[in-house]
Structures are given as C-alpha cells and as structure tokens.
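Agenda item 2: NAP complex prediction
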Amino acid sequence: MKSKYSKILITGASTGIGRQLALDYGKDGSTIWLLARSESKLLELANEIETSGGTAKVLACDATIEKDLLASLTIAQEESGGLDLVIANAGWGGKMKYPGEKNIEVLNQVIDLNLKAAAQTLEFFAKHMVVARQGHLVGVSSVAGFKGAPGSAAYSATKAALMTYLESLRFSVSPFGVKVTDIRPGFVRTPLTKNNKVPMPFLMDADLASQKIRRAIERGSKRFTFPWQMALTTHLIKAMPDFLYDWVAGLSFGKMAVSGRAGKSEENTVSG
Ligand SMILES: NC(=O)c1ccc[n+]([C@@H]2O[C@H](COP(=O)([O-])OP(=O)(O)OC[C@H]3O[C@@H](n4cnc5c(N)ncnc54)[C@H](OP(=O)(O)O)[C@@H]3O)[C@@H](O)[C@H]2O)c1
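Presented output:
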C-alpha cells in the first residue's frame, strides 16, 4: 500500500510504533520529520529511511519542554511549507506504585508527554492546516483509555483525555477539510511493553501494528481500535456493570499491579 501522504511528522519516532511507521512511510518515498529525545537513534533511523528511498529530517527534542517542542515544530512547518500528516505518537507508560515515592513525579511526566505534548503538537499544526484547508492530524491513544486500568492511573487518565481531546478537535477542524484520527492500540511488542509482567492478550509486533495504523489513516478513520479481538473486548468491558468490571480487573491483574508484583512499577511499563 503506497501512502498518499508525502510530508509527515511523527513524534516518538526513535523506537517502537513510531519508528516502524517512519520506516514504512519512508519506503513510500515520503519526507518524514522525526521527533524524539534520542538524537543518535533518530540519526540511525534517518539513514535507514534515506537508504530505502525516503527523506528524513531529525528533530531531537524533549517534547515535554514546551519551548523546545514548539521550536522543533516550527522548523518542520517552515521546512515542509505545510505538512499533510502529523502523528502525535510519543507516549510513556509511567506505571505507579503503592506505596511509592515517585508517583507525583511520574504523574506529571505522563501528563506532560501523553496529553500536553500530544495536544500541543496537534494544535500547532491544526492552526496551519485549517488555513491551508487540508491535512490530517493523528493521535495515538490506547485501549487503556476506555477504563481505569489497574496500576496505570496516570496512563489511563491521559489516554482517556487524549481520546476526548481528539474527538472534540475533529468537530472543530473537519469543517475546514482537516481530518482527525484517534489510533487506539491494544498490546504491541515495543520497548514500552518489554518489561510488562501483566497479561498482554493479542500482543502483536510493531510491523503489523504499523500496517494496520497506516491503513486506518489512509482511509481517514475517525477512530481505530486494534486488534479486532481487543476492540471487541473493550466494547464488552465498557458495557459491563461497574461491579463486574471491578471483579474482572482485580481478578486478571489488579492485585499484581497494585502490589507491585506486576514489575518494577516506576519503570516505563504499561498495561496497554
Ligand atoms: N506498545 C503498546 O502496547 C501500546 C499500546 C497502546 C498505546 N501505545 C501508545 O503508542 C505510542 C508509542 O508507544 P510505543 O509502544 O512505540 O513506545 P516506545 O517504543 O517506548 O516509544 C515511545 C517513543 O516516545 C519517545 N519519547 C518518550 N519520551 C519523550 C519525550 N519526553 N519527548 C519526546 N519523545 C519522547 C521515545 O523516544 P526517546 O526516548 O528517544 O525520547 C520513543 O520514540 C505511545 O503513545 C503509547 O502510549 C502503545
């Protein structure tokens, strides 16, 4: 499937889903602005993209530092003369531990990256796209945003907020011809899930996830939950009465996550 997008910005491009998306769009000959903190990883990725026929520009910055983020986004806007696809993908699991010394620090970091930086990125380009009357804005939320996932209070809350933000943004910008897509992955094998000790049903590799995400973006889906088994499961969970969800969540992994047996809770692990 060759992409119709030729000028693309991806945040969180140095590893995992973002990296795979960048590689795949690169093979289509697109120009991709790669944003993440790790300059060495981005330079390596840029080389791979250039070798496979694409063009890559490196924007090494911490997306949670607003002035650095806006400076990087400004460079991408000026160099591209207007992007046609922006994927706000950078995210962090930030599992919280009880009792835990670092929960407030983790909470702030997760909100700053998963919600603030994602929304700031999309707002920055929304401003330009509505004037140009074209463009596509994509946010990567998670199935963890549908309900409060055990052990992931900050993560679940930010993903739920991002889903709501994307839905609202879509109503505002679609009259100007700008599309908005909310990508809601289930479990994908990436550095984010590497140390997860909780069950990860329907876990898939990043290359398959990238294929599915790209297809949803190309067809202009408003929201896309995958894999389908996870989409079905989340619909069933959402339809459950609260008492049943409490029981199921506690039964499957709630106790492990709360007690910290689910892994080193203050590391970058996440439950979906
Ligand atoms: N994997 C899953 O199962 C899963 C499921 C549902 C949703 N998601 C979502 O999918 C997205 C990608 O996750 P992933 O699994 O691919 O994780 P990942 O491999 O850990 O990638 C996270 C990316 O975000 C970047 N990042 C982290 N902190 C940053 C910061 N402060 N400033 C700029 N970039 C930063 C990382 O690069 P640097 O460290 O170089 O900055 C990396 O490129 C996330 O939003 C995640 O919540 C993943």
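Discussion summary: Residues 137 and 246 are 35 Å apart (CA to CA).
Owner for follow-up: CH.
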